[in-house]
Amino acid sequence: MKTIDDLQVGGKRVFVRADLNVPLDGETITDDGRIRAAVPTIAGLVKSGAKVIVASHLGRPKGAPDPRFSLAPVARRLGELLGKEVVFATDTVGDGARQAVAGLGDGDVALLENLRFNAGETSKDDAERGAFADQLAALADVYVGDGFGAVHRKHASVYDLPARLPHAAGHLIASELNVLKQLTDDVKRPYAVVLGGAKVSDKLGVIDHLLERADRILIGGGMAYTFLKAQGHEIGNSLLQEDQIPAVQEYLARAKERGVEFVLPVDVLVAAEFPDLKTKAPAHPQAVSAAEMPAGQMGLDIGPATCELYASKLADAATVFWNGPMGVFEHPDFAAGTKAVAQALVESPAFTVVGGGDSAAAVRILGFDENAFGHISTGGGASLEYLEGKTLPGLAALED
Ligand SMILES: Nc1ncnc2c1ncn2[C@@H]1O[C@H](COP(=O)(O)OP(=O)(O)OP(=O)(O)O)[C@@H](O)[C@H]1O
Ligand SMILES: O=C(O)[C@H](O)COP(=O)(O)O
């Protein structure tokens, strides 16, 4: 795979596919980690005198313009971080984009509007995606793939566009792969993996692979309840992936056979309903045994005994990979589990990797110093699929 250093970019129009999909509260960016991670590549291109065209998706709009998902606030923040004007194009491949690109001098930067305002970006139809990629290709001379968080998506700007232009990987992709390779090639043991979060169906599959790799797997977040149910426990109204129960039972049996330690919550925090994340009104949580969750209640965080248990299981690990918050950390009543795991990682001498948009944001929003972790990956789904050994479309497309 060529890197950006192999390209001659001076005076050329360089299309940078970044992942600037940041959490927004209205027009306020609540965590700018992904924008900061994109800066080294963009700043390097500016320094080399390229005409830089940055593009990204934000959220999941339905293939048409939707102001809630505009990248305008991101353009402002990117400009602040670069210390220079970022011209914002009001569309992605229309007059706005063409004019913005035509007006670029050497070392200037434009950000296109959300790629997903165009149905072609995410289409399953090769021809429709290809037609959109042709329109994007007309804007640029060279392609730099740097949106690590989106490389697992077979989308026009990630997969089809690099085939149409000279291409290379940017600094973020290169540094993410450098770190994640250490978890696939020569991982230092004991290797512990902590999994949580809400995208349960996306993430259960990775356990299949981890059973061959990890020494210890700790489960929290919304994922834990499918495991507790599979063990025959009552889980009230907690998040459940019912169709995955047989798979989960098979994972538990295989873990036993292979001597992989599988650690599940021993207690959880429950409440009668999902908390209000806007008002943050007190949710009156109750700590209960994981084996005795009351019917009608919902598990929303790991409990205090589990926090201690998980901290002890992480204390002597040599490598830790963590994806997915332990609870609904956005509400103060259910942030303790995520804080406890983050604290355990900070105190551990292990090489620690935190992967995932929400997990990385949680660590920063809860006030942890990101430098206290070995690596904070900008990719959640992307890093998990990479660890699974899957071929990622956005990486395959950058190979020669
Ligand atoms: N018990 C629970 N019930 C419901 N939601 C939960 C629970 N525990 C955690 N969550 C939610 O999980 C969400 C994060 O999960 P997600 O799987 O998206 O994490 P991520 O991998 O870091 O992000 P991404 O995959 O988007 O990069 C948070 O918004 C949190 O509120
Ligand atoms: O947040 C992410 O994981 C990436 O930006 C990809 O977004 P997606 O899951 O909407 O494709």
UniProtKB/TrEMBL annotation:
CDD domains recorded: Phosphoglycerate_kinase (cd00318)
- Binding positions for ATP? K203, G299, E330, G356, G357, D358, S359
Q: Detail which positions bind substrate.
A: D19, L20, N21, R34, H57, L58, G59, R60, R116, R153
Kinase keyword on record: yes
**Keywords annotated in UniProt:** ATP-binding, Cytoplasm, Glycolysis, Kinase, Nucleotide-binding, Transferase
Q: What is its EC number?
A: 2.7.2.3
Q: What's the short name of a Pfam family annotated to this entry?
A: PGK
Q: Which pathway, per its entry?
A: Carbohydrate degradation; glycolysis; pyruvate from D-glyceraldehyde 3-phosphate: step 2/5
What does the UniProt entry say about where the protein is found?
A: Cytoplasm
The UniProt entry's coiled-coil ranges are none
Q: Which reaction does it catalyse?
A: (2R)-3-phosphoglycerate + ATP = (2R)-3-phospho-glyceroyl phosphate + ADP
Q: Which organism is it from?
A: Streptomyces lonegramiae
InterPro entries (alphabetical): Phosphoglycerate_kinase, Phosphoglycerate_kinase_CS, Phosphoglycerate_kinase_N, Phosphoglycerate_kinase_sf
Family membership noted in the UniProt record:
Belongs to the phosphoglycerate kinase family.
Q: What is this protein called?
A: Phosphoglycerate kinase
Query: Where does the protein principally reside?
Result: cytoplasm
For molecular function, the Gene Ontology terms on record are: phosphoglycerate kinase activity
Source organism, top-level taxon = Bacteria
Q: What subunit structure does UniProt give?
A: Monomer.
